[in-house]
Amino acid sequence: MNQGNLHNLTLWDQWRNDCQSLDVTLTDAQTDQFQRFYTHLIEVNRTTNLTRITALEDFLYRHLLDSLTVAPLLPANARLADIGSGAGFPAIPLAIARPDLQVTAVESVGKKCAFMEEAAQQLQLSGFTVRNQRSETLGQDPQTRARFDVVTARAVSALPVLLELCLPLLKTGGLFLAMKGLSYEAELDAAQNALKVLGGKLQQVKTYEHPALSGARLLVFEKVKATPSQYPRPIGIPAKSPL
Length: 243
Known about the structure:
CATH superfamily: Vaccinia Virus protein VP39
Strand content: 15-25%
Structural class: alpha/beta
CATH class: Alpha Beta
CATH architecture: 3-Layer(aba) Sandwich
Distance between the termini: 57 Å
Shape: globular
Number of helices: 10
Number of strands: 7
CATH topology: Rossmann fold
Oligomer: single chain
């Protein structure tokens, strides 16, 4: 075995230990799924622009570990929608680490949806669905509006916009988990009206001790009352005219 392979094994082992420190325990079979996901993404990324983060260590920590920060907060057997999944973050890592979940990945870019569907098939992720739709449309669809226990979003939009896209999908009492960075406070200040109008309340802001997550902030919101029926507004309006 060459030094590169030894180094890769060491990286995966260390990463798995770091997951444990977040209260995310992975089996050998789940670790193998993550390894196959990485291999598949790198292969597809050669011809389809999915992510600029391709070096293994960066991938393990900036994509996977970051995605898994939300896993311990998810109720058992929750129905989860991930808004703006891109190449599958955090939707696919959560589906691997928490096979009890019903995960719906929402993404408007067709080539990224095709990648997620192919990856989910290869990894045999049961209960994983991809919706090639805009979240404004999903939020007004009776089949999906107020149907989810948890909604997640990572690096999608500013918080006032995100709240309008995400809160309508949640059941009352459900959680919206917004994955943000160090500048979250300004966004949170700007989102106070949106929270009031849409029926959300900030529960907590989580920080992490791991150096790779030093800039990560997880904003945990609860939906405390039903969102008025006119929200979300039509496609593009939430971003052009935030609440």
